[in-house]
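Troubleshooting log. The previous structure file for this entry was overwritten by mistake, so regenerating from the original sequence record. Sequence copied from the archived sheet and checked twice against the printout by T.R.
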Amino acid sequence: MKKNGKRIVNARKLVDENMTYSLDQAMEVLNSYAAQFKAKFDEAVDIVLKLGVDPKDTNNMVRGAVAMPYGLGKTVRVAVLTKAERVKEAKEAGADVYGADELIEEIKGGRLDFDVCIATPDMMSSISKIGKILGPKGLMPNPKLGTVSEDITAAVKAAKFGQAEFKIEKAGIIHAAVGKLSFEQKAIKGNIKAFYDAVMAAKPASVKNNYMKGIYLSTSQGISIKLDASSIVG
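Regenerated output below.
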């Protein structure tokens, strides 16, 4: 067995697959995992939610974004598309890339050196010209994700600090990073609660019962821990 495979097998022994862990218990497992099985990089801590919705039903769409109160521990390059008179505002807000129609032309030409694209509402008709470029990359500004906003400064700050987007996937799954293994427990727990609350708030009106069917916490190369939802709410 390869070294990495053996590492994963041994790491999984830290978790009882038949047990549902409280959030505090899960943090203890993560601490043990971090101490015993150090990777060559700072592993991400991810949350996976199994929802009782039909992702093929447009009435069951679950999508949104939430600012992580403790950040996500990564550098985010932000582009802002706005009218010429507000470009200076975007620059002062901390955007890495900013512009009006000239930036749209640059994107048409292949410029995509950013991770998040924010736009003011008055630019959306112009941005439709590059929808086929931004859309497949997950960069198309969207009001539900907070990336279409009149408040440029707030939108840039949220994107820079750490914003987790979520969208229902096949089999009713939502997943997102909630931090790094090196984060303090308070930070991981705070981010988990913020993400959980956001997904709960996005519950479609058509879904009456059993919306949250399962919650799991995992690391990039290691373990998966089943969480008790009541311990997140409490």
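The domain at 15-72+163-233 is CATH 3.30.190.20 (Ribulose 1,5 Bisphosphate Carboxylase/Oxygenase). Archived copy saved in two places this time.
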